[in-house]
UniProtKB/TrEMBL annotation:
<dbReference type="InterPro" id="IPR004803">
    <property type="entry name" value="TGT"/>
</dbReference>
<feature type="active site" description="Nucleophile">
    <location>
        <position position="269"/>
    </location>
</feature>
<keyword id="KW-0671">Queuosine biosynthesis</keyword>
<dbReference type="GO" id="GO:0008479">
    <property type="term" value="F:tRNA-guanosine(34) queuine transglycosylase activity"/>
</dbReference>
<keyword id="KW-0819">tRNA processing</keyword>
<dbReference type="InterPro" id="IPR036511">
    <property type="entry name" value="TGT-like_sf"/>
</dbReference>
<feature type="active site" description="Proton acceptor">
    <location>
        <position position="93"/>
    </location>
</feature>
<keyword id="KW-0328">Glycosyltransferase</keyword>
<feature type="binding site">
    <location>
        <begin position="93"/>
        <end position="97"/>
    </location>
    <ligand>
        <name>substrate</name>
    </ligand>
</feature>
<comment type="similarity">
    <text>Belongs to the queuine tRNA-ribosyltransferase family.</text>
</comment>
<feature type="binding site">
    <location>
        <position position="219"/>
    </location>
    <ligand>
        <name>substrate</name>
    </ligand>
</feature>
<protein>
    <recommendedName>
        <fullName>Queuine tRNA-ribosyltransferase</fullName>
        <ecNumber>2.4.2.29</ecNumber>
    </recommendedName>
</protein>
<feature type="region of interest" description="RNA binding; important for wobble base 34 recognition">
    <location>
        <begin position="274"/>
        <end position="278"/>
    </location>
</feature>
<comment type="subunit">
    <text>Homodimer. Within each dimer, one monomer is responsible for RNA recognition and catalysis, while the other monomer binds to the replacement base PreQ1.</text>
</comment>
<comment type="pathway">
    <text>tRNA modification; tRNA-queuosine biosynthesis.</text>
</comment>
<feature type="domain" description="tRNA-guanine(15) transglycosylase-like">
    <location>
        <begin position="15"/>
        <end position="371"/>
    </location>
</feature>
<keyword id="KW-0808">Transferase</keyword>
Length: 374
């Protein structure tokens, strides 16, 4: 029997929450960080190693997979799970953000977005219906409505116009999902409204009238800065239902995650752990380290002797420094693996702190220790 999607809230500590999302492919412990598998792979890390870090779910990308190798081809392989060998739940985004940020010659209409591929210039049309069709072909357990992700800064008038379009697309996405998806799959609505309080509330309330099993906060981490992002969350999450998961899209640095959990967010994704790893940056409890720096040439200590992850525990900083200076592929692979492990250890530590009613203390101690510049 297929397990239906559900969310159970286990404990709250202030606004911070811990719980579980149940899917047919496994349970997602929240707060959860989703490693990003843009093109069917978490860059530079094998799926078995992603799983070993403690990740319960990964993210796939509709835009990239529709262009290459195509969603239809992935479906012939049995869906994204079999294609990539990831056995747990997969969340797919709608492709809307990438169309706005990567695609060429975009034309936005009520119907959808017409664009040319950044890969080969081929012409495509992404509508709410086509986005859902692609996500269903991929076999995603959690899917996203198609929305327009507006730029920042933006005027109130332009933001409102974009918000209204996203709400109309939300209804169309839900209608298409009802026709195409299975009973074990779920569709999230996406709250927009830039940094405007009245618009965020309007978006959240309107999406709840349409009705979704989960709600995402989109349109942040696009240049508004951490203080402004937290301000938006301060007035947005209280408007969202307490019995549904809340997903902050595209965020972020460790301090972003702690601050957002503090404000009631349950789910996150970001390319930062693997992108940083490919460029020689390791995230640690004390902040980021640039392993390319000459000060690590003779450093005989590992990144984290207390970790169970081999990349964190078994290799010295001096060796990692050597790998990057020598241009060896193993350097980005090990740091990406380490960074994913650190992010999962951070999420586990936050879940434990919430369950034990000491999250405020944990957050204060983390902020005192973690320095973003190194």
């Amino acid at each position: 029997m297929t397990t239906p999607f559900s969310f159970s809230l286990h404990h709250t500590d202030g606004q911070a929450r811990t719980g579980e999302i149940t899917t047919s492919r496994g349970v997602i412990r929240t707060p959860a960080f989703m490693p990003v598998g843009t093109a069917g792979t978490v860059k530079a890390v094998q799926m078995r190693d992603v799983e070993a870090t403690g990740a319960d779910i990964i993210l796939g990308n509709t835009y990239h997979l529709m262009l290459r190798p195509t969603a239809e081809r992935v479906a012939k392989f049995g869906g994204l799970h079999k294609f990539s060998t990831w056995k747990g739940p997969i969340l797919t985004d709608s492709g809307g953000f990438q169309v706005m940020s990567l695609a060429q010659m975009r034309k936005l209409t009520e119907k959808g977005v017409e664009f040319r591929s950044h890969i080969d210039g081929s012409k495509h049309m992404l509508t709410p219906e086509r986005s859902i069709e692609i996500q269903c072909l991929l076999g995603a357990d959690i899917q996203m409505q198609l929305d327009e992700c507006p730029p920042f800064p933006i005027t109130e008038e332009a933001s409102l116009e974009s918000l209204e379009l996203s709400l109309r697309w939300a209804q169309r996405s839900k209608d298409a999902f009802a026709d195409m998806a299975g009973p074990h799959q779920a569709l999230y609505g996406i709250v927009q409204g830039s940094v405007f309080e009245d618009q965020r509330k309007r978006s959240a309330e309107s999406l709840q009238e349409i009705g979704f099993p989960g709600y995402s906060v989109g349109g942040l981490a696009v240049g508004e800065g951490r203080e402004q992002m937290f301000r938006v969350l301060d007035f947005t999450t209280p408007v969202l239902p307490k019995d549904k998961p809340r997903y902050l899209m595209g965020v972020g640095k460790p301090l972003d995650l702690v601050g957002a959990v503090e404000r009631g967010i349950d789910m996150f994704d970001c390319v930062l752990p693997t992108r940083s790893g490919r460029h020689g940056q390791a995230w640690t409890w004390d902040g980021p380290l640039n392993l390319k720096n000459a000060k690590f040439v003779d450093d005989e200590t590992p990144l984290d002797p207390d970790s169970d992850c081999p990349a964190s525990r078994d290799y010295t900083k001096g060796y990692l420094n050597h790998l990057f200076r020598a241009g060896e592929y193993l350097g980005p692979m090990l740091l990406s693996w380490h960074n994913l492990d650190f992010y999962q250890r951070l999420m586990a530590a936050m879940r434990a702190a919430i369950a034990e009613d000491r999250f405020a203390q944990f957050a204060a101690e983390f902020r005192a220790r973690h320095r973003e510049k190194s």
